[in-house]
Design a protein that fits this description.
The chain has strands at about 1-5, 10-15, 20-25, 30-40, 45-50, 55-60, 65-70, 75-80, 90-100, 110, 115-120. With about 120 residues, the protein is an all-beta fold. The radius of gyration is 14 Å and the shape is elongated.
């Protein structure tokens, strides 16, 4: 059984900052990549940022220069530092991990339960 537990969401004024954390636990053999997605009301879930085990990062254009993703491989934890937040960043943020468990021989995607981020204007 694998769990991804997120924390750090909340309400912030435009221009403010928040830091999201996501810890993966359970029978994990290896995590190839971790990332953050977000879903606004009435919209699809989209990638915000991702990071591989080697530290290679990817960002959606709208957050480049404002958000920073980082990872602690020893703790199976990924972070998203969000600065200069805008109202359009308001969404439920989901943690994702592409990982291998002790039980299966193939990598699969796992998701957290989501954390609300609300940016007021």
């Amino acid at each position: 059984q694998v769990q991804l537990v997120e924390s750090g969401g909340g309400l912030v004024q435009a221009g403010g900052s928040l830091r999201l954390s996501c810890a993966a636990s359970g029978s994990i053999s290896s995590i190839k990549a971790m990332g953050w997605y977000r879903q606004a009301p009435g919209k699809q879930r989209d990638l915000v940022a991702s990071i591989t085990r080697a530290g290679i990062t990817t960002y959606v254009d709208s957050v480049k220069g404002r958000f920073t993703i980082s990872r602690d491989n020893a703790k199976n934890t990924v972070y998203l530092q969000m600065n200069s937040l805008k109202p359009e960043d308001t969404a439920v943020y989901y943690c994702n991990a592409y990982l291998l468990t002790d039980r299966y021989s193939t990598y699969s995607n796992y998701w957290g339960q989501g954390t609300q981020v609300t940016v007021s204007s």
